[in-house]
Design goal:
Blueprint: H1 10-13, H2 16-24, E1 31-34, H3 36-43, E2 50-54, H4 58-67, E3 71-76, E4 81-86, E5 89-95, E6 97-101, E7 108-111, H5 115-120, E8 130-131, E9 137-138, H6 143-149, H7 158-164, H8 167-179, H9 186-194, H10 204-215, H11 220-229, H12 234-237, H13 243-256, H14 262-270, H15 274-283, H16 288-298, H17 309-319, H18 321-335, H19 341-348, H20 350-353, H21 363-367, H22 375-390, H23 397-414
Parallel strand pairs: 2-5
Antiparallel strand pairs: 1-2, 1-8, 3-4, 4-5, 6-7, 8-9
Helix pairs in contact: 8-10, 8-11, 10-14, 11-13, 13-14, 13-18, 14-16, 15-16, 16-18, 17-18, 18-19, 22-23
Length: about 425
């Protein structure tokens, strides 16, 4: 179906987007903004990347850009995509196309001039809308009613769409979590369940990309619960998923006013012990920093149940603010939604009320007490630091002198380690 509805978006009238459309709408060629930018504008959501489809072939797009002094990069030339950069803003410009042979990301395509066919080859109805420079919306697959209903629906036969690329299973839930409302579309849901074995064909990088985006979407709890109920998380994680703690983690983030963090939420969903963290890091090909964060959260989080403030201060000193809060929040999430949030909130906000001092004793303090430089000196410093923490971080000279003397005495009693 087509429609005469007009989109009132300022970026269509002026600025870099209007300039790209003007460049490509000439000499018998046509260009439109397509996909997520149109969807977001209709939903009143901040528009990010703006993708453009055109009847012009890639070589013609490059030629016109060069003539206009616009930088062009052939980022996906085999599939008809050229990136134009205007005022530091990139635009992916893709020639209209149709799949001639489909097998995931390696589909063979042929270029064309058929806007209807180009829309019908996309994944979801709400992603297949296009808008020209005049603001007129074009809807060939029923995307406008689905946007009004906040419904995420595959174009055509869901089974066929998924077989083209199994990543669409994850995209179905991710797009629903971000833009949908209510229950997921039943036909799409059943098709995803039927295709779950196909998830094994996806690379770890693609799984990571979609899952981390899904975990921080506004509707993540409903989407993740639907995936768990449909048996879709086991082939991704290779282990148990805990939807209750996942929901509690999101509630805790909101209570603390924290930005959604995908790794923190992943820990609540799928990490019970550090072995889980290492498995997930491998299966999702997490970055080194992501893997370290997940592993640190999973390390003996269960010891934090019943944590008092004195112990909390020592833990904060040892871990640092971020690691302390993240591990504490995992323990909070595991405690369950029935657990009173007030004590957990009090502990989680400790870094706002108290800053850990630096350990005030130095190597020189022990050299003066007859300890030679070397491994023994490092050992006595460790003994003293442990005692200082147990004494609740005293800073007065008398207490510090006593701690230093006791550490040296203990070292002598226990027998000095060999140098």
């Amino acid at each position: 179906m087509n429609t005469a509805r007009v989109l009132d978006a300022p970026w269509l009238k002026s600025g870099p987007t209007a300039r790209v459309l003007s460049l490509l709408n000439d000499n018998g060629e046509e260009a439109r903004v397509v996909g997520g930018a149109v969807r977001n504008a209709l939903l009143g959501i901040l528009t990010g990347d703006i993708d453009i489809a055109t009847t012009a072939l890639p070589d013609e797009v490059i030629r016109r850009a060069k003539a206009a002094g616009i930088k062009s990069v052939p980022t996906g030339i085999a599939h008809g995509t050229v990136t134009l950069v205007i005022e530091a803003q990139p635009f992916e410009v893709t020639t209209l196309r149709q799949d001639t042979e489909t097998f995931g990301r390696k589909a063979k395509v042929a270029f064309g001039r058929d806007w209807v066919g180009d829309a019908q080859r996309r994944d979801f109805t709400i992603n297949a809308l296009s808008v020209g420079a005049d603001g007129v919306l074009h809807d060939y697959v029923g995307g406008l009613p689905d946007i009004t209903a906040r419904r995420v629906r595959f174009i055509g036969d869901p089974n066929h769409r998924i077989a083209e690329d199994y990543l669409r299973v994850l995209r179905f839930f991710r797009i629903h979590a971000a833009f949908g409302a209510g229950e997921v579309d039943r036909n799409g849901y059943l098709a995803c369940i039927a295709a779950r074995a196909g998830l094994a064909t996806l690379s770890a990088e693609r799984l990571r990309m979609e899952m981390l985006k899904l975990l921080i979407a506004d509707g993540a709890v409903g989407a993740i619960t639907a995936m768990a109920d449909g048996g879709l998380l086991l082939p991704i994680f290779g282990g148990v998923a805990y939807t209750g703690p996942f929901a509690t983690m999101i509630a805790a983030e909101r209570l603390l006013g924290l930005e959604p963090n995908p790794i923190r939420r992943l820990a609540a969903l799928a990490v019970a012990v550090t072995e889980d963290a290492r498995r997930l890091a491998s299966r999702l090909r997490l970055s080194n920093n992501e893997a370290k964060m997940l592993d640190a959260m999973g390390h003996r989080w269960w010891r934090l149940a019943g944590l008092d403030e004195a112990r909390a201060r020592r833990l904060l000193y040892r871990l640092g603010e971020d690691s302390y809060r993240n591990r504490l929040m995992l323990a909070w999430a595991r405690a369950g939604s029935d657990s009173a949030p007030a004590p957990w909130r009090e502990l989680a906000t400790l870094p706002l009320r108290w800053r850990a001092p630096k350990f005030p004793l130095k190597a020189a303090d022990f050299i003066l007490r007859g300890i030679a430089e070397g491994p023994v000196l490092g050992h006595v410093l460790t003994l003293a630091e442990d005692a200082w923490l147990a004494a609740d971080f005293p800073l007065d000279e008398a207490s510090l002198g006593c701690i230093a003397d006791q550490a040296v005495g203990r070292l002598n009693r226990d027998g000095r380690p060999s140098a």
